[in-house]
Structures are given as structure tokens and as C-alpha cells.
Amino acid sequence: MRLTTLDLWDDFHQELLSFILRRVSDPADAEDVLQEVFLRLHTHLGALRQEDRLAPWVYQVCRNAIVDYYRRRRPAGALSEDLPGETPVPPGEDQARQAAVLLDGMLDGLPEKYRQALVYTEIEGHTQVELAEFLGLGLSAAKSRVQRARAMLRQALLACCHFEFDRRGGVIDYAPRCSCCRSPA
User: Fold this and answer.
1) Class of residue 117 by CB neighbours under 10 A (exposed 0-12, middle 13-18, buried 19+)
2) 95-111 exposure pattern, b = at least 16 Cβ within 10 A, e = fewer
3) CATH for 159
4) CA–CA separation, 85 vs 103, rounded Å?
5) pLDDT band at residue 180 under the 50/70/90 scheme
């Protein structure tokens, strides 16, 4: 049997709307996401190879549309000039380098073994498996070291600045509490 978009609408639209409404609070936005889901289903229906995997595929398309909805809503305003950090970042450097410059002082405040683990994995981009090999540790010890380093850095950031988070843990805003977060004048 060949599926049509109308068949999908009849079978899934009410369930999907309920699914979306549990994740998107505004009913009008939820309807928009539902329309986006069915547009994607219609566009890619020919790519479905196994009709017995229809429901998981439909829900994956729906989850992706919800994620895209939240990505589009994320504000993309200009960054404030008073971001923490003492070293100005030259234009054109990649984001990882910018983050490293901004957090340099706080990273330096970590004990050496934790600073090394965090820099090696998060800034230099190595995996925790590579960290374990580099340090001659077991994988679980390397993972623990990275987790402890992240927790220490988080504590340092929270002690230094007041952060506002959205319901998913993303940073909305921050305000410096001490001089270490303020830009040099």
C-alpha cells in the first residue's frame, strides 16, 4: 500500500498535536510546528523505506521540528561589550578560542590536573578516551576527572557571576558579581 500525506494526517495529526503541545506552550506555535511536521513528512514520504517503521519516523520528524522551533526562537542579538575576560579576542578567531580566552583566568584557578583534563578535552577537542591514554589513566578515571573539572569551573563561574537560565538550562543573561568578570576599562 502506498502512503499519502492525507493518510498520515488522518492517522497522526491529533496525536502529534498533543505531543507538540506538551513541549510547546503556545497553541498557535504548536499548530505551526504541526504544519511544519506535515510539510516535512509530505516532502520526504518517498524516502521512507520500511512502512513498519512509520510511527518512529513520524515522531522523529516531529521531535526535529520542535528542536528547530526552539533554535529559531533563540535570540541572536549582539554580545555586550562587557563580557568577562581580560584579553581582547581578535576578530575572526573561532568560538572555541574565544571561549578559551574568556575563561582563561578561571581555568588557571583550577588545580593543575583538572585544568589539564578540561583544556585537553573541551578546548583542544580530544576525546576522553584520548585523555585517558595521554595521562595513563583508566577511562572511568579520565571521565571522573573531566566531570570534576567541569563542576569546579561551574562553581567558579557561579561564584563570580549571577546567571539566569531558561527552563532547558541555557544561559539567558548574566551579571558580574566581582571584578574578575568585569571588562577592564
Assistant:
1) buried
2) eeeeebbbbebbbeebe
3) 1.10.10.10
4) 7
5) low
Q: Say what the pLDDT of residue 185 is.
A: 39
| Residue closest to 184 by CA, chosen among 58, 84, 41, 67 | 84
Region 36-53: mean pLDDT is 84
**Domain extent for 32:** 5-73
More confident residue, 163 or 89: 163
Claim to verify: residue 62 and residue 103 sit in the same structural domain: no
Q: How many residues does the chain have?
A: 185
Kindly give, in sequence order, each residue whose CB lies less than 8 Å from that of residue 165, ignoring residues fewer than 6 positions away: 171, 172
Helices assigned H by DSSP within the chain: 5-21, 27-44, 54-73, 95-108, 112-118, 128-135, 139-160
90 within domain boundaries = no
108 and 174 share one domain: yes
Look at the chain and report how many structural domains it folds into. Answer: 2
Q: For residue 96, what is its C-alpha cell? A: 572555541
Residue 52 sits in a domain whose CATH number is 1.10.1740.10
| Cα–Cα distance for residue pair 131/143, rounded to 1 Å | 9
